[in-house]
Amino acid sequence: MAARITAGRVALAAVAACALGLTAFLTAVRGVQYVGAIGRANGTLYDFGIFYRSAVAFWRGTAIYPPGQPNFSPPIAVVLLSPIAGAPAVVAYRVFVAVSLVVLVAALVWTAVAVHSRTGGAVAGVVALLATPALAATLGQGQVYALLAAGLATAWVLDRADHQRGAGIALGIVVACKPVLAPVLLWPLVRGRRRELVAALVTTAAATLAGAALVGPAQTLRYVRVALGGYPAHDVDNASLLTTGIRLVTPGREIPPLVDAPGLGWIAGVVVVALLTVTVVRAGRHELGLWALVAASLLASPLAWRGYLVVLYPGVIVLLATARTRLLGAFLVALLLVPHSLPSLWSDRASTGYITATLLGPLVLLATWAAFTEAASRPGEMAGDQSSSPGARRARGEQRAPVVRGPSALPDS
C-alpha cells in the first residue's frame, strides 16, 4: 500500500534532498574527509595512539593514564584493547580498522536479517552508511564506536528474539566500556524486562570491577580524576547538546558566544534532563526505544564527536526495513552523508555564517534523536516483520495460541 502524502513526509523529503545537495557541493569543494587519514596513520596519532600507548603501559605495568594523555576509556576498555600492544603501532592500527569495519558490517547485516529487510534495501542502506563521514572519522581516528555499535546491535537483536539474558550481557558490556551510554539501562527497566535488566547491571558491575582489579587501584583512581577533569567543551566539533549549550553562553578560544553569560550554562543541563525524560516517557517501552535512548545519551554526554553517530547505524537499518519508518531512515541517511567541512567555507570564525555552521553537528544528532523518538512513540508498531519476533509479540501483549487437536488429528488406534 502506498504511503500517504502528508506535510510531514513532504518536509522530510525536502530536507533530505537539500542534505544530499549540500553533500554533493561540499564533496566537490572540500573533498572527502578522514579517509586519507587511514592510509597516512602510523598508529601513534589520534585516539588510537592514546589507546595503543595505554595498552603498552598496561603490559609493562606503567602509568595507563599519564598526565597530558586524555584517555577517557575506563579500565575495562583498556584491558579489552590491550592485545593491540602485541604488534607494531602501524600494524595494530590497520588491523584494528579492518576488524572494526568487518564487525560493523556484520552487525548491520545481522540487524537487517533480524527485521527481514528486503535484500536490495538492506544492501543500499549498508553501502550508504559505509559512505558516511562519521564512519570515516571514527575509523580514521581509531575510535571504538564501530565495535560499540555491534554490541548495541547484539543487544537489540537478542532482545527481539526474547533472549533477555544475552541482551542484558551485551548491554552491560557496552555500558561498562562507555559509561556515558548508561541511560540505555532504562530501556529494559521501563519495559519490565527484569532478567535483561539484572543481567545488564551485573555485567556492568562485574566488568567495571574486573577492569579496576586488573589495572590496579592507583590507575583506577587516576581514571576517575581524568574522567572528572573536564572535556573539550569549547571544541566546535563536539556535537553534544550539553556542551554546545554551554559553549553558546561561555567565552571560548575559537568562537565568540552568542551571549556572554556563563551563568546560563545550567539551562543546558536542564534541557538534557528534560530530553532524557521525554525519551523514556515517549519511547522507552518500544523496541526502537533503545536507539532513541542511545541518541539521547549522546546529546546529554559532555563529549560527542560526530563519529559517535556510528553507534546508531544498526537502528537506521531498522528504520529502513519498516514501511512506515522508511522515509525517516532515508532522511537520517541523507543527514549522515553531509560532510563535516561546512564551517570551513568561512574564514572568519567570528562571522555569523561560521558560528551557524558549527551547529550542524548538534542539529544532526538532535534530528537523529527526534527521528528515533518519533518512530518509537507510535503505539503498537513494531519494526520489520512483526509476526516473527517473540519479543515483539510479548511487547504487544500477544500469546501463542494453544494447539487443539481434533479427532481426525489423533493417531489411529
TrEMBL record:
It comes from the Bacteria. Keywords: Cell membrane, Membrane, Transferase, Transmembrane, Transmembrane helix. The keyword Transmembrane helix applies. Pfam families: GT87 (PF09594). Residues 378-413 are annotated as: Disordered. It is a multi-pass membrane protein. The chain crosses the membrane at residues 91-115, 122-148, 168-190, 197-216, 263-281, 288-305, 311-338, 350-372. InterPro entries: GT87. The keyword Ubl conjugation does not apply. It is found in: Cell membrane. Signal peptide: none annotated. Its main location: membrane. Belongs to the glycosyltransferase 87 family. This is DUF2029 domain-containing protein. It comes from Actinomycetospora chlora.
